[in-house]
């Protein structure tokens, strides 16, 4: 036997030594007589003999005093590869010994006899017969086999940092398993993937995804199938955040006999007034909403069909049915009532389904789906409800006011809300300037400056206190001028706004009525995010329906927000009736890859809706006659539903005279936005550049890079001069030269080209000599506002109107604040590393290092979550094109998709937290600045800021407290002040009455 002193791999379990026992030892090896093995030395399977020789060679080198790393170096391989080869050899030997022992056992030999025959201890022989022991004796090989199976089934698996945590193995064991896979003919690849969310400065960063696939797999193939990359075992989901795991199940399909379809042409107005509402009978087990009163759901119907909409309880369900499905379809449109499920088993509804599974949770904002329940029979069953969003999920949606809405209001309102926005930014800057840790201060100053630059482009304004997003539900007994809105004072006035916002005639001003019995029964007085309205109000809100549509509710007792009556020109306008295409017309939309482009008309919803929205905004700002604005709005109502309902948008364009309006208000049919509001975020490409300018040293000093002007805080740039290739070919159908990009078909390994822009046509079997290749200097995307600010003044985008000047001034002051922060950043030194402090706080340093490693272990799951979230968000955007034109909701939707994706793939980030002594170590310089920056990227930012503040800081900076006192002195309430400052009422109360902030000059 080889002892632990001979050689030992600490990452293997105690049974590793068993696998190193010899199969046969001959006389020349020192054994008595004919040898202790069953077969003479050198006999047996050739693979085993090679394994034994390899093991013997390594053992001899170790006995000579060499360490494993030295042996690996001698063999010209990594230590992981050496361990992998040892593991493979060990497994070969173990299998050979096991086979021999079992054959003797089958012949009736006792364990003792087999031990004597093979020269192997009896305890080891017993191990050969233990299935459990065999299963865990060589976990590296077992892991490799499991990963191999995953690759064989899925083609690509994620194998980066953190996967070992999910598998319950060490990182070393994972690396050995990867080396074993390489021996088996597999290889690892590194992919760069853009993150779904944005960092604090408004930019998206990239993350590296390490993927394992068969050797020889083309990297382009993996990129083309990036959404299909699997994390080992990811076909499971966790209903309780990791304690248990479930297989994703196909949705329950209920019999249609349980569903009463309420058509539009029956029983008066029928289902049109509640279009999208799914009414449920109370007390039905498989339709139980748990503690929620309402939810946005998908319900499978026999025949691979499904319903979509808002589910609520109802006491008006016809006998013999459990569900009433309200639809705007007529009975002769029966085939369109239910939607067809998709073939994708993980996404049969074309919308993400949540995975939490506790209908009785006391927590709000838990998003649940594939719900299970214990039935009357005592057995567990899957619910028919598949939850997309439910009660409590909408309350976190955005509250800011977009320029699309605010620019159409009176200028004073825009000025006031933009002033609040700037004051909050200034408060944030003053807070950062109070930080005591220079490294933390530098990092936060830099991120703050970038966020100011982003805010100057997006032009968001602070919300009016009390504003929030709400999902709408129909309440027939409410008057058309009323709203059931829990959380708002009964009798108060609110305004409802929905995006894209065409004009003040699409805003609804309503009185809050929280006494309505029907609404109380359906929604409840404690509803955090649902409101009830009369169905006529939905038509005013850009044609909203009740399948999950949301609105922004804004308090308006002051009357500051202007609304208008719906003009006759828009009343009863039904583009789905006026512009429905005939069967012989091409489908609306861009042909998906693999489909014949001739069957589609090339319509791009986001692009067309963006153009008409910009035109409407420009016309409103330029005070166009109402009848002209209504023409553009009618066309926008056609465009928003064109692809979804296959509408003839070209005829709408012509009949509403859009070309004439573009010439009049934008300068040409092909011209774009013409005012600052619509141009700010507009794309404009510039020559590729990088931040930083090389400065030559003087008097022989070494040169250096300057990123920021130390005197002004302005960024410094220089052009990269990089050249790129452009490809063109002649379209065989039209004869026109078209711009294309090369792509690769992973199935056929064929190179082909795809048109760029609206032309998504695929060109295959192209003679490469026909490709026209040109070179040009590389460009990069920017925005018109960004360029104007770089050139010194946002007013360059203004056409001279009052509202544009207000926004231009706001953008300029945000850029000035950004430059001020950058100037402070560049002139703030880093915290110096103190080796002596490291010795004093060595235990704290190691603790922080461990915490950082744990936080980083989530990275592969975070990368996979970003891939999944991107796919989910794109589906959301396709299902609701309006989302594209509400930046705040779009950002929130990205966040929700990422939250779901994290749960789906098991991504659970554990942020770094600090003990008092660990923070003392940081402040003393016991860790380097680079290490501290890593901690900052993986910690809770609020805790970081709190610990970095002076000791008297009490969760609000002195600058914020001073501003709060001034607001109170000017007549604002405590609640209004807290909302304006972005803090809770309790936080404000605590700060105001703390001795640290006493200010006798303000009196009581």
Notes on the protein architecture:
- With 1004 residues, the chain is an alpha+beta fold.
- Among the domains are: 14-137, no CATH class; 247-390, no CATH class; 468-555, Barwin-like endoglucanases (Beta Barrel); 575-679, no CATH class; 685-801, no CATH class.
- Helix content is 38%, strand content 15%.
- The chain has 33 helices and 32 strands.
- The protein is globular.
- Residues 1-47, 236-245, 355-368 and 995-1004 have low confidence and may be disordered.
Structural topology:
Layout: H1 46-63, H2 68-74, H3 79-106, H4 111-118, H5 122-128, H6 131-136, H7 139-154, E1 157-158, H8 163-167, H9 171-184, E2 186-194, E3 206-214, H10 219-224, E4 236-237, E5 246-247, E6 253-254, E7 259-262, E8 277-281, E9 294-301, E10 305-314, E11 323-326, E12 339-340, E13 372-374, E14 380-382, E15 385-390, H11 403-406, H12 411-433, H13 438-458, E16 468-474, E17 482-484, E18 493-497, E19 508-512, H14 517-522, E20 530-533, H15 535-540, E21 550-555, H16 575-578, H17 605-621, H18 626-645, H19 649-655, H20 658-666, H21 676-679, E22 683-687, E23 689-691, E24 693-695, E25 704-706, E26 717-719, E27 723-730, E28 737-745, E29 750-755, E30 762-763, E31 772-777, E32 779-783, H22 784-790, H23 802-826, H24 835-840, H25 842-856, H26 859-879, H27 887-905, H28 916-923, H29 929-937, H30 941-948, H31 958-969, H32 974-981, H33 985-992
Parallel strand pairs: 6-9, 7-11, 8-10, 16-20, 17-19
Antiparallel strand pairs: 1-3, 2-3, 4-5, 8-11, 9-10, 9-15, 10-12, 13-14, 16-21, 17-20, 18-19, 18-21, 22-32, 23-26, 24-25, 27-28, 27-31, 28-29, 29-30
Helix pairs in contact: 1-3, 3-9, 7-9, 12-13, 12-23, 13-23, 17-18, 26-27, 31-32, 32-33
């Amino acid at each position: 036997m080889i002892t632990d002193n001979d050689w030992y791999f600490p990452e293997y379990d105690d049974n590793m030594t068993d696998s190193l026992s010899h199969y046969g030892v001959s006389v020349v090896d020192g054994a008595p007589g004919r040898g202790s093995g069953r077969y003479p030395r050198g006999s047996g399977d050739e693979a085993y003999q090679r394994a034994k020789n390899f093991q013997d060679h390594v053992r001899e080198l170790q006995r000579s005093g060499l360490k494993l790393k030295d042996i690996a170096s001698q063999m010209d391989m990594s230590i992981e590869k050496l361990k992998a080869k040892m593991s493979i050899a060990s497994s070969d030997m173990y299998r050979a010994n096991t086979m021999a022992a079992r054959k003797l056992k089958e012949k009736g030999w006792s364990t003792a006899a087999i031990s004597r025959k093979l020269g192997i201890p009896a305890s080891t022989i017993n191990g050969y017969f233990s299935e459990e022991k065999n299963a865990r004796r060589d976990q590296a090989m077992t892991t490799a086999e499991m990963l191999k199976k995953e690759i064989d089934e899925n083609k690509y698996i994620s194998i980066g940092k953190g996967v070992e945590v999910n598998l319950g193995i060490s990182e070393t064991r994972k690396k050995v398993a990867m080396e074993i896979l390489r021996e088996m003919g597999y290889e690892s690849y590194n992919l760069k993937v853009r993150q779904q969310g944005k960092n604090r400065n408004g930019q998206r960063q990239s993350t590296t995804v390490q993927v394992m696939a068969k050797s020889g797999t083309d990297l382009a193939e993996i990129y083309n199938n990036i959404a299909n990359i699997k994390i080992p075992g990811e076909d499971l989901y966790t209903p309780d955040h990791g304690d248990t795991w479930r297989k994703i199940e196909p949705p329950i399909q209920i019999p249609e006999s349980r569903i009463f379809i309420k058509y539009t042409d029956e029983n008066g107005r029928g289902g049109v007034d509640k279009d999208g509402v799914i009414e449920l009978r109370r007390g039905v087990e498989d339709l139980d909403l748990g503690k929620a009163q309402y939810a946005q759901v998908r319900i499978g119907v026999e025949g691979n069909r499904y319903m979509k909409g808002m589910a609520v309880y109802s006491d008006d369900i016809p006998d013999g049915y459990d569900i009433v499905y309200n639809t705007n379809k007529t009975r002769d449109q029966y085939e369109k009532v239910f939607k067809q499920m998709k073939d994708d088993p993980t996404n049969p509804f074309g919308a993400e389904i949540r995975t939490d599974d506790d209908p009785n949770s006391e927590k709000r904002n838990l998003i649940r789906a594939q719900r299970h329940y214990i039935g009357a029979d005592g057995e567990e069953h899957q619910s028919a409800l598949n939850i997309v969003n439910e009660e409590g999920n909408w309350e976190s949606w955005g509250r800011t006011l977009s320029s699309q809405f605010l620019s159409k209001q009176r200028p004073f309102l825009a000025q006031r809300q933009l002033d609040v926005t700037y004051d909050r930014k200034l408060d944030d800057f003053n807070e950062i300037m109070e930080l005591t840790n220079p490294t933390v201060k530098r990092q936060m100053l830099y991120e703050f400056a970038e966020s100011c630059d982003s805010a100057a482009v997006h032009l968001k304004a602070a919300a009016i206190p009390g504003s929030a997003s709400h999902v709408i539900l129909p309440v027939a007994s409410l008057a058309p001028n009323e709203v059931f809105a829990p959380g708002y004072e009964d009798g108060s006035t609110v305004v409802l706004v929905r995006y894209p916002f065409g004009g003040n005639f699409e805003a609804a001003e309503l009185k809050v009525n929280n006494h309505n019995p029907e609404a109380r029964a359906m929604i409840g007085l404690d509803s955090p995010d649902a409101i009830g309205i009369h169905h006529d109000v939905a038509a005013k809100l850009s044609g909203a329906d009740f399948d999950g549509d949301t609105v922004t509710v804004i308090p308006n007792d002051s009357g500051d927000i202007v609304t208008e009556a719906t003009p006759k020109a828009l009343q009863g306008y039904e583009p789905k009736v006026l512009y429905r295409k005939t069967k012989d017309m091409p489908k609306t939309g861009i042909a998906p890859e693999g489909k014949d482009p001739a069957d589609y008309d090339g319509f791009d919803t986001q692009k067309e809706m963006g153009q008409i929205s910009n035109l409407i905004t420009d016309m409103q700002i330029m005070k166009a006659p109402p009848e002209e604005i209504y023409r553009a709005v009618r066309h926008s109502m056609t465009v928003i539903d064109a692809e979804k309902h296959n509408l003839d948008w070209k005829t709408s364009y012509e009949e509403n005279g859009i070309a004439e309006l573009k010439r009049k208000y934008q300068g040409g049919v092909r011209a774009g936005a013409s005012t600052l509001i619509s141009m700010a975020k507009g794309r404009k490409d510039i020559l590729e550049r990088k931040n930083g300018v090389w400065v030559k040293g003087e008097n022989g000093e070494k040169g250096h890079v300057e990123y920021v002007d130390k005197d002004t805080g302005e960024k410094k740039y220089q052009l990269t001069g990089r050249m790129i290739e452009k490809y063109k070919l002649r379209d065989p159908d039209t004869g026109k030269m078209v711009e294309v990009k090369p792509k690769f078909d992973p199935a056929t390994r064929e190179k082909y080209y795809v048109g760029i822009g609206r032309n998504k046509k695929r060109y295959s079997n192209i003679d490469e000599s026909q490709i026209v290749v040109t070179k040009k200097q590389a460009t990069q995307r920017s925005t018109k506002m960004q360029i104007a600010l770089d050139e010194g003044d946002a007013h360059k985008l203004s056409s001279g109107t009052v509202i544009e000047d207000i926004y231009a001034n706001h953008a300029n002051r945000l850029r000035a604040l950004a430059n001020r922060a950058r100037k402070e950043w560049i002139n703030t030194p880093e915290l110096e590393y103190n080796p002596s402090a490291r010795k004093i706080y060595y235990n704290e340093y190691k603790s922080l290092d461990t915490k950082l490693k744990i936080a980083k272990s989530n990275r592969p799951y975070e990368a996979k979550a970003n891939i999944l979230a991107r796919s989910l968000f794109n589906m959301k955007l396709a299902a609701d094109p309006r989302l594209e034109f509400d930046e705040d909701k779009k950002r929130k939707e990205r966040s929700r998709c990422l939250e779901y994706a994290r749960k789906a793939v098991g991504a659970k980030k554990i942020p770094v937290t600090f003990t008092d002594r660990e923070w003392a170590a940081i402040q003393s310089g016991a860790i380097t600045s680079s290490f501290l920056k890593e901690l900052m990227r993986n910690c809770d930012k609020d805790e970081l800021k709190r610990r970095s503040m002076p000791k008297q800081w009490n969760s609000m900076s002195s600058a914020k407290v001073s501003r709060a006192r001034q607001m109170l002195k000017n007549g604002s309430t405590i609640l209004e002040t807290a909302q304006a400052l972005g803090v809770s009422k309790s936080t404000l109360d605590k700060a105001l009455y703390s001795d640290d902030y006493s200010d006798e000059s303000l009196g009581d």
